[in-house]
Amino acid sequence: VQLQASGGGLVQAGDSLRLSCTASGRPLSSYTMAWFRRVSGKEREFVAASGRTGASYYIDSFQGRFTISRNDAKDTVFLQMNKLKPEDTAVYYCAAQSPVRGGSEYYGDSYDIWGQGTQVTVSS
Q1: CA-CA distances (angstroms) from residue 30 to 19, 95, 124?
Q2: 73 φ, ψ to 5°?
Q3: What are the pLDDT digits (tens) for 60-116?
Q4: Closest CA to 64 of 85, 44, 43
Q5: Residues 6 or more apart from 8 whose CB is under 8 A from it?
């Protein structure tokens, strides 16, 4: 499967953005999907994941502002980001965990397929 992320851009603090990640090659439904981000000069960090069974995973700092969803019929996963802050400026990556790989949804090493990233810039 290949992943194509889109939807990034330049917004002001307090605005919203919705990122999309579309899969091609195989149905998305058999994959756990996730969003990670990399702030310039920092390590990649987990943002959210959507499991094959429909469960969603977040870390506290994003829950309430960011929402992950998926439309398996369209092989697309979304990241709705509200109340954006300048510190949310980063390259956002979508990732897929194939069924045989396993591993925690929160760790990047659990994912074997990565999209190219989309830049989100939040101005103050």
Answers
A1: 21, 13, 39
A2: -65, -30
A3: 888 889 999 999 999 999 999 999 999 999 999 999 999 888 889 999 999 999 999
A4: 85
A5: 17, 19, 91, 92, 118, 119, 120, 121
